[in-house]
Amino acid sequence: MTWSSALKEAARSGLTIERTKLTPLIAVRGSAGVAIVIGLCLWRGDPTLAVSSAFGAFASGIVTFQRSMRPRPVLALAVAGALAVSTFLGYLAAAHTLAFVLLLAGWTFLAGMAWAIGPVSGLAGTQTVAIMLVTVTLPTTVLGALVHAALIFFGGLVQAALIVVFPVRPWGTQRDALADALAAEADYARRLRQDPVAAFDPAPLMDARLASTVTPRQARRRPVQLHGPRGLAERVRPVLASLADPVVGAPLEGPERDRARDLLGAAGTVLDAVAHAVRHAKPVRLPPEAMATLEVPATGPMLKGAARRSAYRLISLLADAVELTDEPVQATRPTTEAERGQGGRGEGSHLLRPSVPRLVPVALRALRREARWSSHIFRHALRVAAVAAAGYLLGTALPFGHGYWAPLASVMVMRPDFAQTYSRGVARFSGTLVGVAVAGALMALAHPSEYLSAGLAVVCVWLMYLLMRTGFSVTSACVAAYVVFLLGIAGEGWEQTVQERIVLTLVGGLLAMLSYALFPAWETPKLRDRLAEWLEANGRYALAVFDTYARPAGRRPRQVREALLDARAARAAWEESEARAEKEPVRHRGLSLTAAKAASAALATMGRVTMILEAHLPDKDAEPSAGAAAFAAALRPVLERAGEAVREERDLDWSALRAVWERWDAEDESQGVAVRAADLLLDALDDLAEALSPASAAGDPATSGTIPGPQ
Fold first, then answer.
1. What are phi and psi of 447, to 5 degrees?
2. Could you state, in order of their start, the residue ranges of all structural domains in the chain?
3. Residue 151, SS3 per DSSP
4. Are 126 and 410 spatial neighbours (Cβ–Cβ below 8 Å)?
5. Integral membrane bound transporter domain spans which residues (predicted)?
6. Cα dist. 695→535, 597, 600, 647, 690 in Å?
7. Is the Cβ–Cβ distance between 324 and 223 less than 8 Å?
8. Using the 8-state DSSP alphabet, how is residue 553 labeled?
9. At what angle do helices 47-64 and 450-466 cross, to 10 degrees?
10. Each residue of 51-95: pLDDT tens digit?
11. Cα dist from 245 to 34, 254, 367, whole Å
12. Residue 160 carries which DSSP code?
């Protein structure tokens, strides 16, 4: 993609307004927290404190709207504490420009590194930089700084208290994540009716697993409906794929295929019903047609072999899903001491989430892992720290006043990747232009008092919370108007506010965009590394499954499960990198977008085949498979060499592994599931080798883009 195309795509993405589900009650609760804080400060007769304290409630409210599985009150309090600390430190250094610039650069660097912990931590870090820039413009003493910091923390405390006192749809995030996973599997079952090898994106299952990880206190209060269906959803998916696959499941044509299609359709109906029940906390309602389809026909089973086993397993799992979900939704199941001791590793136990203090070593390990020059997060932290310092100095030098708006605009739009930074920059400026124009016009026509200005500011906060997920340009407009009304409480002239905000926001946005052009962290050169990591993770998953066939007595389901989770994580990392690379104005670096998509499809097929094989794992008393043992022994060194070959742009060679499979195929007269799945696995590896061959990997000039900037 060329620079002009990349910038056009980024601008279009930033200005896009999406239709999404609105949450007016939650928006009312969040804006009420801001209103309470502003109202109390105005009641005490100090408009300046009202402006300062409002930012604490405002920022704490924003974080509670993010997609996090942490309890919302905990998020509000944690963010409020960080905001209070950053405010106090900023006040201590504000009187000395050099000291404040050094503090700002260091604090912004740490905030940029917070993206290594997670997106919510990254957003919280950005908010702490913003409040350091804004509130320190209000002169005060050290004691006054403590008062400001306490008021900012009080704003977060108010938000947390409102969440506890006025809960809106408790467990809603967890319910939605689990329901989305079940609905995705329902859609998968229906697609398998037409395409027996349809692809499935495991992202909903990953989100559901994240949502099911709870603290011990949450585990004692979690509704029964959220206990079992996720594990069942994990087990249903391979059974669906196994039933539909024409090689190890029902034949491609004939009565067996018709029966398989009926079962898949009924499974989709049942899974949709279970998803609806989980999402809305209601009992399951099933149509009688689906129930009739899931019964064994009066003429006897129509499926044979592995397909029949998959069908019986599917019917049993669907029955369990309905039974678990149809329990009383208000009942709770306590966490036993045994389950706590297992730490989420035992059958039916909880996935326990560490408390906030125990997250400190986890966060430190994440920061240490990203503290390297090649890390895009580390480069983002350096970039945003330099831009914040330069923007503050430039804004202070310009004759506008409120110079902090330039670095504030930069910090708020900058993200670790190119596309988000540029799209948010365009959205920020356009939204600010609209917001300050509308708010400035109202200020000019109405000349509102401080109480009316406060009311208009709260209305803007409510609109921002309500429309937060529709697009960054919309929220930027609401925030811009909010700031104009908020500064109006303190007596700032609206004419100066509008002019300053537009010019300095443009300056800050240009600084952010220029910084990424001069000091990028391109994802495109890393594509081969990500692809190799996905191949190696898939290989470990396949080896864990084949080892179970080779030694059934030593069966270790936990090892297979962990290998599957690693493969999913590697696939998610690849897809994230590929999505970023598609929007970057750089060369393909030896892997064109066409080759990347073909390789991705091949590795997805490899994972699907392994998953199907996992659905038919032998019992512990089954006979060991010598063919599976030989195949696994040959697969291990071949995959090790293949990972290096992908990174070094060398050809992939599976001939030795193919020879081992041919001997296994000749010796296995029963043609079991394992030998047939191994054949499909080899086909997927052949597709990968073809996708990464020099002719395919080189691509064509149309997909090359331009020469990348400095690394």
1. 45, 60
2. 3-169+365-518, 172-221+223-331, 524-703
3. helix
4. no
5. 392-514
6. 20, 15, 17, 16, 9
7. no
8. G
9. 10
10. 777 888 888 888 888 877 777 888 888 888 999 999 899 888 888
11. 56, 14, 43
12. H
Residue 545's nearest CA partner among 560, 558, 565, 566 is 560
Which CA distances in Å does 294 have to 234, 260, 301? 20, 11, 11
- In this predicted structure, the answer to whether residue 342 has a pLDDT above a threshold of 70 is no
Q: Are 551 and 515 in contact (CB under 8 A)?
A: no
- Give me the pLDDT at residue 346, please: 38
Pull the structure tokens for residue 611.
């998953």
Residue 213 pairs in a beta bridge with 351
Sequence length of the chain is: 711
Query: Tokens in use for 510?
Result: 């240009």
Task: Estimate the crossing angle of helix 557-582 against helix 203-212, to 10 degrees.
Answer: 120
Rounded to an integer, what distance in angstroms lies between the CA atom of residue 527 and that of residue 570? 12
d(C-alpha 39, C-alpha 47), whole Å: 10
Count CB neighbours of 266 within 10 A: 23
Chain centre distance of CA 541: 23
Check if the beta carbon of residue 458 is closer than 8 Å to that of residue 31.
yes
Q: Are 61 and 191 in contact (CB under 8 A)?
A: no
**Rounded CA gap, 56 and 84, in Å?**
8
Tokens of 165: 């006192």
HSE-CB for 572 with a 13 A CA cutoff: 12
Task: Provide the pLDDT for residue 264.
Answer: 93
Which tokens belong to 549? Answer: 């066939």
Residue 119 CA, distance from chain mean position: 8
CATH number, domain 524-703: 1.20.58
pTM of the model: 0.83
Single-letter amino acid code for the residue at 179: A
Contacts of 304 (CB under 8 A, 6+ apart): 256
* Most confident segment among 99-108, 407-416, 581-590: 99-108
> Residue with structure tokens 């740490």?
110
Question: Do 410 and 384 contact (CB within 8 A), yes or no?
Answer: yes
For residue 347, give every residue at least 6 positions away whose Cβ sits within 8 Å of its Cβ, in sequence order, or none: none
Strand partners, 332: 223
Q: What is the pLDDT of residue 329?
A: 45
| 253-262, 336-345, 546-555, 680-689, range with the lowest pLDDT | 336-345
Q: Token pair 């420009």 is at which residue?
A: 97
Inform me whether the pLDDT recorded for 242 exceeds 70. Answer: yes
Report the C-alpha gap between 173 and 207 in whole angstroms: 10
> In 3D, which of 618, 619, 573, 620 has the Cα closest to residue 600?
573
Cα–Cα distance measured from residue 613 to residue 471, given in angstroms and rounded to the nearest whole number = 43
Question: Residue 373 burial (CB < 10 Å; 0-12/13-18/19+)?
Answer: exposed
Residue 599: pLDDT over 90: yes
**pLDDT-based confidence at residue 366 (cuts at 50, 70, 90):** confident
Q: 229 with 274: CB under 8 angstroms?
A: yes
Site of tokens 């067996």: 256
Contacts made by residues 630-638, CB under 8 angstroms, sequence distance 24+: 630/660, 630/663, 630/664, 631/546, 631/657, 631/660, 631/661, 631/664, 631/678, 632/543, 632/546, 632/547, 632/550, 634/660, 635/539, 635/542, 635/543, 635/546, 636/539, 636/543
Could you give the percent of the chain with pLDDT greater than 70?
A: 89
Using CA atoms, how far residue 366 sits from 18, 265, 369, 372, in Å, is: 33, 44, 5, 12
